[in-house]
Design goal:
alpha/beta, Rossmann fold, Zinc Finger, Delta Prime, domain 3, 2 domains, five-stranded parallel beta sheet, elongated
């Protein structure tokens, strides 16, 4: 349950346009909310429905306590319909069912709202049926089409909707949202630098493999600082058995990149930007041993390893060469 103020922090442009429309009683008849997963499209669509039907609204803000708000929040409002793909696509019959439902007199005098998730997954027949519905709605209706791939939608549908872009969440906003969802601080800080999708971030944090991966990266750097002659042994005993798949190894390299960025933050006095927030002591020890140029070179070495991984270089050979290069200087 959100407020417009909270949603505006995440999507300032889209929310500003919508709240202005609510305040002026000029809500459009059709919107397309376009943006990546986890950017708040569905939350905003639900909030707009609440503001439209709320009986105790203060300004643009729904009360979240009246019967209308509660029914929308629970997904049981008779005049707010949510449509999702049936299998891999949205089918013509689903749109026809929607049209039949909307042909009925609305329970509330205001009209009806329909929200279509993954609108880009409509079949051609479904899209053409929706187009007719957009052109000739029954009574007062508001459509909200949610999509991650607006380029896959029919131009004729795009031309009949107001398109609002939902930007990826910034690392700072994603970090705060993860904390609000009780994610461990040390993991939330790192994951917020690896993805801008709240759903993906939560999935990563819930995976024990990732927490172990983070620990192995920290241990590798500790070995490189204090026991460099054991680095290859550590690689074979701990790193390679954990980072088995190509995607897993790519995550490991991303974590190494973040570690070396933290080394630069230490050197330029920006400790507040650290990603490995609980490893400041080890980072300071390692940062004292290298110049900024050397750390920049190490970042380049890791980036090159990521490119070689994409080119299907043998993972064991790739990591052995990477460790040896990181030991240089």
């Amino acid at each position: 349950m959100y407020t417009w103020g909270e949603l505006k922090n995440k999507q300032p442009n889209a929310v500003r346009m919508l709240t202005n429309s609510i305040a002026k009683n000029r809500i459009a008849h059709a919107y397309i909310f376009e943006g990546g997963r986890g950017t708040g499209k569905k939350e905003v669509s639900i909030q707009l429905a609440k503001s439209y039907f709320c009986t105790k609204r203060i300004g643009v803000e729904p009360c979240n306590s009246c019967i209308e708000c509660k029914r929308i929040e629970s997904g049981n409002h008779p005049d707010v319909l949510l449509l999702t793909p049936d299998g891999l696509s949205l089918k013509k019959e689903q749109i026809k069912d929607l049209q039949r439902e909307f042909a009925k007199k609305s329970v509330e005098a205001k009209g009806k709202i329909y929200i279509i998730e993954h609108a880009d997954k409509m079949t051609v027949q479904a899209a053409n049926s929706l187009l007719k519905f957009l052109e000739e709605p029954n009574g007062r209706t508001i459509a909200m089409l949610l999509t991650e791939q607006v380029q896959k939608m029919l131009p004729t549908i795009l031309s009949r909707c107001q398109i609002l872009n939902f930007r990826p969440l910034t690392p700072e906003l994603l970090f705060q949202e993860l904390l609000e969802k009780n994610a461990p601080t040390v993991l939330a800080k790192i994951v917020a630098s690896l993805t801008n999708n709240i759903n993906d971030a939560l999935a990563i944090i819930s995976d024990d493999w990732f927490a172990q991966a983070r620990n192995i990266v920290i241990q590798l750097n500790e070995v490189l600082v204090n026991r460099s002659h054991h680095a290859l042994l550590f690689l074979h005993e701990h790193w390679l058995p954990h980072f088995i798949e190509k995607e897993q190894l790519n995550v490991g390299l991303d974590l190494l990149l973040l570690w070396h960025k933290d080394l630069l933050y230490i050197q330029i006095g920006e400790q507040n930007n650290l990603i490995f927030i609980d490893q400041k002591d080890l980072l300071e020890v390692q940062a004292m041993r290298f110049s900024q140029k050397r750390i920049a070179d190490q970042l380049t070495i890791i980036l090159e390893a990521k490119k070689r991984l994409d080119a299907n270089v043998n993972p064991q050979l790739l990591m052995e060469q990477l460790v040896l290069k990181l030991q240089e200087g």
